[in-house]
Amino acid sequence: MLQFLIKRILHSVPTLIGVSLVAFLLIRLVPGDPVLLLLGERGGSEEAVLEMRQNLGLDRPLWQQYLNFVGNAVTGDLGESIISKRSVWSEFLDRFPATIELSVLALFWSALLGIPLGVLAAVRRGKFLDHLVMSVSLIGYSMPIFWWGLILILFFSVQLGWTPVSGRMSAAFDVEPWSGFLLLDVWVRGQGWEAAWQALRHLFLPALVLGTIPMAAIARMTRSSLVEVLREDYVRTAKAKGLTRRQVVYGHALQNALLPVITVIGLMVGTLLTGAVLTETLFSWPGVGRWLVASVVARDYPVLQGGVFLLAIVIIAVNVGVDVLYTWFNPRLRDKIG
Amino acid sequence: MNPKAWRKFRANPVALLSLGLLLFWIALGVLAPLLPIAEPQTVFTGSEQLPPSWSIGGNSAHLLGTDDIGRDLLSRLIYGARISIGFGFLCVLTSTLIGGVLGLTAGFYGGWWDRTVLRFVDISMALPSLLLAIVVVAVLGASLWNALWAVTLVALPGFIRITRASVLAEREKEYVQASRSFGTSPLRQMFVVILPNCMGPMIVQASLGFSDGILNMAALGFLGLGAQPPTPEWGAMLADAKAYIESAPWLVTWPGLCILSVVLAFNLLGDALRDSLDPRIGD
Questions:
Q1: Nearest to A27 by CA among B138, B271, B12
Q2: Which candidate, A194, A184, A157, places its Cα nearest to that of A282?
Q3: What does the pLDDT look like over A188-232, one tens digit per residue?
Q4: Is B128–A271 a contact, with Cβ atoms under 8 angstroms apart?
Q5: In terms of C-beta density within 10 A (0-12 exposed, 13-18 middle, 19 or more buried), how is residue B16 classed?
Q6: A15 and B122 in contact by Cβ < 8 A?
Q7: 3-state SS string for A233-268
Q8: A291 and A212 Cβ atoms separated by less than 8 Å
């Protein structure tokens, strides 16, 4: 297993190199002098320009610049933001937990609802319930989620006044960050139920919006996978030996049907991050997605470069993790690898 | 499409419904200048934020109401269809052409060229689609046309993979070997012998690519990184409407419904095409 893990990690090295090249070239492809871009719209003094040109090593050949960039990146030095003058790495760390908290909650409810819906549709294949579940999930799958978010705001916030429209926390609570995950930090800081409730109220709509497409995809995948498995010989055997329908589906078929669903959930990470860009912008959620969009608007290229690079690493790491999990859950593959 | 696939397609009510809906939208977009509606940029001073005509305070001159500065919403939505569907079409066209040629040559020749193309696919798939599009827009600058290039680049990997996979499946079949033994040139083998037999999956991918393209263009517009005001693009209209969600909710409702209906129609069409073009699925 360890061998497989190492092999899988080595396998993603070329992709990592490619992604670092894209991030490296990003600033250099923008028309104009990178130094002036890095110093921002207002530019800087003559000395500042010269100093930065030297610091960035722009006088050296391109391949040396690239090696320099990678060397710095490995030690966590991704430059600093033009706007805030803080290091890109610490800005990222400030915002990443907010994105993770939102994404995990979104994935949680989408799997919690998507898997049972898919099972229901598969068991009732061709019946009314199946058509209903599949239609609803296709609508969910086609949803422009930025609009869906606006409609939910219209209903829950404007009409009913139940949920806040933006932000992570109400101003009444000032939670000193510990892990960055608010739902955890309110307990660590001893702020109790009321604070946790406020944090949940803020999470509710963004998580609902962000989980919509994953929910639809998980429901569709679960259905098609279970329909396939229910045709297998061992399911027929289980039926033939007199097991109830319930025992056949939940005791035998579902375990195997869920294997491809794990992969789909892993592939969801990209979808979640895309969704996070839109959801966070819509709800003013202080996460990585909104940070990156703001960096494009403000032409804060170091932030965009570093942020894209770090997110790509996260995605590659998750993909490796999913592959390993998939192999682990699938005994046939596990034995082959040994 | 062969007659059998067409028969299967025609027998599917959902397929016909989605095709009908799309033709309706395309007709609206194409005929927009001939329709008895206002110009999308015309400002009706004194008629700002009019609700739809059937609600209290509505005016029958503006069927779906007006926006915050008094432009006719229905007209902007219809002209928006030209932009969304038109640019969706351009995106599918360019990514089918480029992705098709890359996938076809990669699958046909194999070797280092295949590995290079696959590496490109891997790298662009390591970034979520919208994020990659944002990077491209950051380099080129925010505009409708730049958003098109961004969305096209993002769509490429899907087309390359689909084409390459079908070429690999076809390449070793007997009819290709036969044509090779006649001394057919590689170009002819690729484009005349193999390509027509890969059309099924490519058509399905094109239909699904339409919905992805339209969604991504709208998302970029919504983020302010695509179409710029006052262009009547559905995503950009939603970004504008956000500020008026309490006073003029209809400005939020309609553009989104338009996006949803077009995207849903393309997804349904894609599903239906897959069913009718897949020989494994019986009548």
A1: B138
A2: A157
A3: 777 778 788 888 888 999 999 999 999 999 999 999 899 888 888
A4: yes
A5: middle
A6: yes
A7: HHHHHHHHCCCCHHHHHHHHHHHHHHHHHHHHHHHH
A8: no
**Record: contact A30-B138, CB cut-off 8 A:** yes
Give the residue-averaged pLDDT of A52-64: 75
Q: What average pLDDT does chain A have?
A: 85
Residue range A16-24: average pLDDT?
Answer: 86
User: A273 contacts in B (CB within 8 Å)?
Assistant: 128, 131
Which positions in chain B touch A22 (Cβ < 8 Å)?
123, 127, 135
User: In chain B, which residues touch A (CB < 8 A)?
Assistant: 119-120, 122-123, 125-131, 134-135, 137-139, 142, 211, 215, 218-219, 222-225, 235, 238, 241-242, 245-246, 249, 252-253, 255-256, 259-260, 263-264, 267-268, 271
Chain B touched by A62 (CB under 8 Å):
no
| B256 with A141: Cβ contact below 8 A | no
Residue A337 has pLDDT above 70, yes or no: no
Contact B107, B80 (CB under 8 A): no
Please provide residue A180's backbone torsions phi and psi, each rounded to the nearest 5 degrees.
Answer: 95, -15
Task: Calculate how close chain A gets to B133, using CA atoms only, in Å.
Answer: 10
What is the value of ipTM here, to two decimals? 0.88
Interface test with B, best of A41, A155, A268, A296 (most B CBs within 10 A): A296
